[in-house]
Specification:
Number of strands: 2
Order of helices and strands: HEHEHHHHHHHH
Distance between the termini: 33 Å
Oligomer: single chain
Low-confidence stretches: 1-6, 15-26
Mean pLDDT: 84
Largest sheet: 2 strands, antiparallel
Length: 201
């Protein structure tokens, strides 16, 4: 999916003149206000900057690098590890989108935390455009994603995996990362295929 020229024009405008999320002249205004109320979050001040764009690129690269062993099938027999990794990757990818459009990193850290469903809701409310029902259902299963890790500390997760297998999770997370790349314009990091091969060796 390609980014519309109107979305890119809006983002360029946000770079020139910082705008409070509650005053954005687009479908974002109502959607973001609704989410702020729903989650009882303080409104985010959207300010696009080169620093935010660079941090967005770093988060996207980190997501792709963390996903390489999962995509290569390294955790194919362990759904718990796959879900934990998928949660971490999804958060990095979704935050890359949020940073790219001007959400401050400290706002993301305070309000998103490890809630993938919430991150996806904020991303879609701000032009991400990834309305995949299976990804939305996976995001709920992943939230918060820490519950799928550290079994030696927390024991078995109290909820089930929603029937998600590693083979079902991988294409959903790949589609999410591809959407992040389309929306932000970030290229995949160099050497990612080599990392996948190394993960299997």
């Amino acid at each position: 999916m390609l980014v519309s020229k109107s979305r890119r024009a809006l983002l360029r405008g946000l770079t020139i003149a910082p705008v409070a999320a509650s005053t954005i002249a687009s479908p974002w205004t109502k959607a973001l206000s609704s989410l702020h109320k729903r989650y009882d979050d303080e409104p985010a001040m959207l300010v696009r900057s080169r620093a935010g764009r660079a941090l967005s690129r770093d988060r996207y690269d980190s997501a792709e690098i963390a996903f390489a062993p999962v995509e290569a099938g390294f955790f194919a027999r362990d759904v718990r590890v796959t879900l934990h990794q998928a949660g971490a990757v999804a958060k990095l990818g979704l935050c890359a989108h949020l940073l790219d459009i001007g959400f401050p990193d400290d706002w993301n850290a305070t309000h998103i935390r490890q809630d993938i469903a919430k991150a996806l809701a904020y991303a879609n409310a701000s032009g991400f455009g990834h309305d995949c029902p299976d990804m939305a259902r996976l995001a709920v299963i992943l939230s918060p994603y820490w519950k799928w890790g550290y079994p030696h500390l927390i024991g078995d997760p109290p909820m089930d995996d929603g029937g998600f297998t590693p083979d079902r999770v991988r294409p959903l997370v790949r589609a999410l990362l591809d959407r992040v790349a389309d929306g932000t314009g970030h290229p995949r990091p160099q050497g990612i295929e080599r990392r996948q091969r190394e993960a299997l060796s």
